[in-house]
Amino acid sequence: MSSTKTKILAITGSTRKNSCNFKILTYISKHFQSEFEVEIFEDLASLPHFNPDLDIENPPKEIASFRNKIKDADGVIICTPEYVFSLPGSLKNALEWCVSTTIFSNKKAGLITASASGEMGHEQLLLVMKTLEANFDDKTQLLIQGIRGKVNAEGEIIDSGTAEALQNFTKNLENRFL
């Protein structure tokens, strides 16, 4: 691998400040900073509602900026909770703005669902990202159930199995760039 770090755009699927998903992305950015230069995108709440009529030639400036961040990154990590057995609406909205583009086509991606259960939300995340043609596999996707008991208020992973799973996930993602 070259001396330049792999640029990762990390998208938190929660609009909650200091959510467990944000804490996981912060953990990855701190513990794997020798491998990755991570920018955490926290502005899902500021993106306008998806409207195909606005996506024809000049999308809203927030959308153009969001798309450029994805385009300029070597890879993307999404870490999201599950809301009502689905993806959070704000994350789904952001991803819908990308459907008419090819910015996710063959973009290396790591996908994490961290929630109480998360199974259905994770399934939907995988389906949406396959539809967008993101490049991920079984080793670069992770479901973390019962997340609230595995991360403390300071953002430390207090469950050894989760810490190990995140280490393996990150190493597998890094290997995709080699």
Automatic annotation (TrEMBL):
Its EC number is 1.-.-.-. Keywords: Oxidoreductase. Signal peptide: none annotated. Residues 6-134 form the NADPH-dependent FMN reductase-like domain. GO terms for molecular function: oxidoreductase activity. InterPro entries: Flavoprotein-like_sf, FMN_Rdtase-like_dom, NAD(P)H-dep_reductase. The keyword Oxidoreductase applies. It is an enzyme of class 1 (oxidoreductase). This is NADPH-dependent FMN reductase. It comes from Flavobacterium ginsenosidimutans.
